[in-house]
Design brief:
Strand content: 5-15%
Helix content: 40-55%
Mean pLDDT: 90
Radius of gyration: 29 Å
Number of strands: 15
CATH architecture of one domain: Orthogonal Bundle
RNA sequence: GCGCCCGUAGCUUAAUGGAUAAAGUAUUUGAUUCCGAUUCAAACGAGUGCAGGUUCGAGUCCUGUCGGGUGCGCCA
């Protein structure tokens, strides 16, 4: 929250307490869409009509009188419409944000709104049996950006990747790699029916051949299969990590299913569920009574063949998060997993944790569109389009920005032509261009520094820009709270627009007016810092030159 | 059949239950020849799929309905 907003909020809270003995949790301060309605506004008088049993305009009037007495940053206050209170801030107060921004530098925008709250965010978590493709790209960028925002807002946030490296699919992986390995030597090979057929499996086989030659060929396939499983897993994970790094996604923690197995956590959870009477046996399998906790069917935990289903280790995975002290869990899952939410929440509740401590954000479908037509498969490989292919085509910046600019739950058409475009139609370039332009201006200036006063920055264009820069910490806090990086994209577009508008209206480096030049340059510097930080929350670069 | 997501200017999207539903893009017009552009200003353009309801106030909440998408394994 900006300093000005904080002051407004705190003062109003104090007034409500003193005058009406009301404790109001959150006084809403907004920047009106129409600047005729003030620099800031609040609807608090309307919200209090019921409690105070009075006309909102009268309440507003009383609050205004007090405000005038108590707050000297206010230029004037007006009551408008049904009872809005509109504030105009003294221009000099507004401009003080410039020095705040310059002082805080790359920490401007950071805030304490999440202080003391711990939150574990699990995202991507793709199986180590294939390449990261388009479906993962949206969730990866989103999860990464959400965590950047959470951390900047003071949350204790852990970014976690859950690796499904045990179970049936790893057996299939081992068999697939082994088959491809034999193929390289011209031997008989048989890909399992449910095996993996991707290029990545062939690449792994080639790597094994290069490193070990025919070492794993002659022995009994039954004996060597464990090697192919382990090596397959290792190389698949390495490639996934490389792809994620290339895509600028970092994780703090990688949790392995196999490790959960080895530490006995899965058996332990199973036993606990049985002990709590949450299960029953039927047809030789063990079922979880999830319908008792809001699911629409009961679910199998242990199959009649003695193996666990996918669900059981994943319950253990979630319980382990709680056991490490995280009170709030966020999962970012693909749309195809939405049916899975009810059973996981059921498990969490059944195990004695609050149901709402898990929130699942669903990544809706993405369609790639080029020249108005949907692209289903990569032209080059004939398979699903991978993250790497996409980024090599349009760049990491554009890929991330596009995914982040739309709310997660909207079905998204990803327009490749637009993402490639080096024109202002492309929002990424519009934003980056603004940054490059600012950089040029500052390079050409003699000296840019903080000033004691900004009394000349009083035009509409300057006020607009100042107000908006001032707003940044609130935007970051709100984006973190609602886990909505798309709000940061909106902010960036608008900030760039305000800057361009200001730039268009005035000559900034003006030798005939050195006093004005100095003040404006400081404003440009503050804009630069804010824009850079905003782009950074998205993992998008801010180029000095383009 | 059951569940989930989405329906807002031609298009892509905004809008903590608040003020005349906001931007970009496209289209039209004008400015700038400049601190390098890919910049700026303006016009035109929707009453939020449809029908009810709650509220001082609904794109937002509730009910129903239509359309599009997606999911409903002892797969993971």
């Amino acid at each position: 929250m900006s300093k000005i907003e904080t002051q407004l909020k705190e003062t109003i809270k104090a007034i409500l307490k003193d005058r009406y003995d009301q404790d109001v949790e959150d006084v809403m301060i907004e920047i009106p869409k129409d600047s005729n309605n003030g620099d800031y506004a609040t609807n608090i008088a309307m919200r209090l009509t019921k409690v105070l049993k009075n006309n909102p305009r009268i309440i507003a009037q009383e609050i205004c009188e007090e405000l005038n007495k108590r707050l000297d940053i206010i230029d004037r206050v007006e009551i408008a419409g049904p009872g809005f209170i509109n504030f105009w801030i003294k221009k000099t107060e507004l401009a003080n944000v410039i020095n705040t921004v310059i002082d805080q530098g790359d920490r401007y925008g950071h805030n304490e709104s999440g202080k003391g709250q711990s939150i574990l965010v699990e995202y991507v978590s793709a199986n180590p049996t294939g390449i990261l493709h388009l479906g993962h790209a949206r969730g990866a960028a989103w999860g990464d950006s959400v965590c950047r925002l959470l951390k900047a807002s003071g949350y204790d946030c852990l970014r976690e990747y859950y690796i499904n490296d045990a179970g049936n699919q790893i057996d299939m992986l081992g068999l697939s790699v082994q088959a491809r390995y034999r193929e390289l030597f011209g031997l008989d090979f048989k890909l399992p029916e449910d095996g993996y057929h991707g290029q990545d499996i062939i690449n792994i086989a080639v790597q094994i051949k290069e490193e070990y030659g025919d070492k794993w060929l002659n022995e009994d396939p039954e004996k060597t299969i464990q090697f192919f499983k382990d090596e397959g897993k290792r190389l698949e994970m390495k490639r996934i990590e490389d792809d994620l790094k290339f895509y600028r996604c970092d994780f703090d923690s990688w949790i392995s299913e196999k490790k959960l197995v080895d530490e006995g956590r899965i058996d332990a959870v199973m036993e606990k569920m049985i002990a709590k009477g949450l299960t029953y046996s039927e047809d030789g399998a063990i079922w979880f009574k999830s319908t008792a906790y809001g699911d629409d069917k009961d679910r199998v935990l242990k199959k009649s063949n003695g193996f666990y289903t996918y669900l059981t280790p994943d319950i253990a995975n979630h319980i382990y998060k709680f056991e490490r002290g995280y009170k709030k869990l966020v999962d970012i899952w693909g749309a195809d997993h939405h049916g899975y939410i009810a059973r996981m929440k059921a498990a969490i509740e059944a195990m004695g944790y609050p149901k709402d401590s898990l929130e699942v954000d669903i990544v809706q479908m993405v369609r790639l569109v080029e020249n108005g037509e949907e692209i289903k498969m990569s032209k080059r490989t004939g398979n699903a389009v991978t993250i790497r292919e996409l980024c090599e085509d349009i760049g990491v910046d554009a890929a991330r920005y596009f995914f982040l600019s739309k709310a997660l739950d909207t079905h998204m058409d990803f327009d490749l032509n637009l993402a490639r475009a080096k024109t202002n139609e492309n929002p990424v370039y519009y934003a980056q261009y603004a940054y490059a332009r600012i950089s040029i201006i500052l390079r050409q200036a003699d000296e840019v520094s903080k000033l004691d006063t900004y009394d000349l920055l009083v035009s509409d264009k300057e006020t607009e820009l100042l107000k908006y820069i001032n707003e940044f910490p609130s935007v970051v806090a709100d984006s973190a709270l609602t886990r909505s990086p798309n709000k940061v994209c909106n902010y960036i577009q608008k900030l760039a627009q305000y800057f361009h508008s200001f730039y268009g209206a005035y000559k900034i480096n003006d030798p005939d007016n050195p006093a004005m030049t100095k003040q404006r340059l400081a404003l440009v510097m503050a804009t630069k810092i804010t824009l850079k930080n905003a782009l950074d929350f998205l993992g998008v670069e801010a180029p000095e030159k383009m």
